Amino acid sequence: MGSTFPSLGARGCGIPLRRSPGLCAIIHYLTRGQLGWFGLTVACVVPGYAAQLLSILWFRADGCPPGCCLLVLHILQLGIWKRYWDVLWMAVKTGGGARAGEVLTQHGDVCVLRLLEALLQTLPHLLLQAYVVVAVDPAGFVPGVSAGLSLLSLAWALVSYNRFACLLKPGHLCPPATAILCLLLWRTGMLATRVLALVLFARLYSFWVFAVAGVHWLLMSFWLVAQQTDIVAQPCRWRLFNCLVGAIYIFCYVNVRPGPSKHRVAVFYAVST
């Protein structure tokens, strides 16, 4: 298990960098007086606090009541960076020893929270900046760079989640760097094509894009219900979970169930393409 820990440092160092695309776009619109796009870009930041709130609740559930410093970090949306740092520090201290299982568990919490933050915050920001580049300001450098970096950030969050899910399987080792790179390229290309298709549809047909996305969302949600996904026990939370994952399936497939997934992946891409 020790071989899975050295790559944590690179991921932890990348956490503050993902703030730059959104911050640069906010400053760009504010300095140019484009208050409408400025307000929408700021609004994309708000959903990310759901992941920060969940992180605080998990700290409390783990027997670590959040103090003032920890609360400030989460308010600044640095709570997940703090978790990355804790996992890296724990991995260095244990050296892959007796607490390797605890390190893997904490790493899994970070991957799940990072994926949730990326889907709730990075994805809306990506859609907004891509629309600005396609429909409003094709020569806009800052929105284009912001969209590109957001795309890479979202793809990397999905790859990190897939890597952790692979490590959980009995007998599976850490995927090699070439496999991770191929997975990153695949996720990036898949997300780029879907985002571009939605943006172009919105450019041509305006608000009809919400109708198309809504139908896709309902189909995917009903499909998840038909699979009897039992990850969440409470009925109300189970329905909410299926609805949230159904919305994610508008853009990409995320395996949320144990066991072989090749048939589910085939059905998903057969419907989505």
What fraction, in percent, of the residue positions are helical?
over 70%
Q: Provide the structure class.
A: mainly alpha
| Major sheet size, sense and barrel closure | none
Number of strands: 0
What can you tell me about this protein's structure?
There is one protein chain. The longest helix is centred in the middle third of the chain and has 37 residues, at 100-136. 76% of the residues lie in helices and 0% in strands. It contains twelve helices and no strands. The protein is an all-alpha fold. The chain has one domain (35-90, 104-254). The relative contact order is 0.09. The chain has helices at 8-17, 19-31, 35-43, 49-61, 68-75, 79-94, 100-136, 141-168, 177-205, 208-226, 235-248, 262-272. The chain crosses the membrane at residues 37-59, 66-84, 141-159, 207-226, 238-256. It is a multi-pass membrane protein. Belongs to the XK family. Keywords: Cell membrane, Membrane, Transmembrane, Transmembrane helix. This is XK-related protein.
Set out the fold topology.
Layout: H1 8-17, H2 19-31, H3 35-43, H4 49-61, H5 68-75, H6 79-94, H7 100-136, H8 141-168, H9 177-205, H10 208-226, H11 235-248, H12 262-272
Short structural summary:
The protein is an all-alpha fold. It contains twelve helices and no strands.
Can you tag this structure with a few keywords?
273 residues, disordered N terminus, 12 helices, mainly alpha, globular
